[in-house]
Please model this.
Amino acid sequence: MSLASVHITGIGGYLPERIMTNAELEKLVDTTDAWIRERTGIEQRHIIAPDQMTSDLAVEAARIALADAGITIDDIDALIVATTTPDLIFPSTATVVQSKLGGRDFPAWDIQAVCSGFVYGLAQAEGMMRAGMFRRVLLIGAEAMSRIVDWKDRGTCILFGDGAGAVVLEAGPSDAENGMIGSVLHADGAFRDLLKAHHPHPPSSPELHHEAVDFAIDSAGAAAVEMKGNEVFRVAVTKLGDVVREILLRYELNDCDIDWLVPHQANIRIIQATAKKLKMDLDRVALTVARHGNTSSASVPLALNDLYINGRLEKGQLILLEAFAGGFAWGANLVRWSK
Ligand code: COA
Model:
């Protein structure tokens, strides 16, 4: 089969039980609930349990997505995990998830595009499926951002949360009416220092260089997100406005054709700016930022799942997904809902 259509046939989301409110953050850093709500729209975020890792969140979301599609892990041909907080440097979190789900002998790999990981993953899976490589792909965005946040930095720690979202993608006939329409991806590494997670000794750090294997330092120490918030904000608003225009133009659609905007949930003001550029009312926009904060690569599938479980998606509706991330890496996908 070549140039098949690609459909989301199962979807699931998982948020860890523990909820952290803005009031709790007031006790940690010099901030207020009012400031966080006004500047970001965030009211609370979920925090991973002490004994959980990213793969555990991914497994929970994946189980729901598989059940929703009416299939098991044995029916899957490929598994992709988008994450910026992997369980280990290697093996990939995708192989950990595969094993925890009881799957064997199909390709599994991670992709790293930070908050755009799911949008990148959807584009990658779609391309491979249209080319006939896979019939059923499990794509997961999963993050434990609380583990890499600097809890002393009020400019960043208020923004992030943990969670996972998963979709099952299935190939269908090439003349199907609905399904994935296409994607647009971008990255510009010139901006890489504006938003990053710093580790004192990253895996390829020159400090870890082994002089004839006689020198290696202890690489213990915490990673931490660093961000120039208002510069990120400015570029995000511009690039997201551009990419939604670009994808509509590429696939010959208009903003009035869109039924749902499913944006990356970083900041309500960034979402409002993109919706305004598309002339869309906020009641046609998936909004979870208040409840979840920024869950990085889990944010877009969790927002899509939120629409789904609340019965708001109808077959044939046109959905525009978009995300912006450290790198910077950003992109958008267009999907006609087929469930
Ligand atoms: N509580 C109270 N005050 C805070 C604060 C907090 N949590 N964080 C920052 N401030 C202060 C700053 O110190 C600054 O004070 P100053 O004027 O005395 O120096 C003031 O608020 C304004 O800071 P600024 O950074 O300009 O605020 P902002 O309106 O840009 O909002 C962000 C900050 C981080 C919420 C906003 O820039 C943002 O959301 N950026 C994009 C982040 C993002 O989307 N990242 C992920 C992309 S995937």
Summary: The two ends are 22 Å apart (CA to CA). The first strand starts at residue 5 and ends at 14. The pocket of coenzyme A is lined by residues 31, 35-36, 39-40, 115, 154-155, 158, 229-230, 232-233, 236, 266-267, 270, 294, 324-325 (CB under 6 Å).
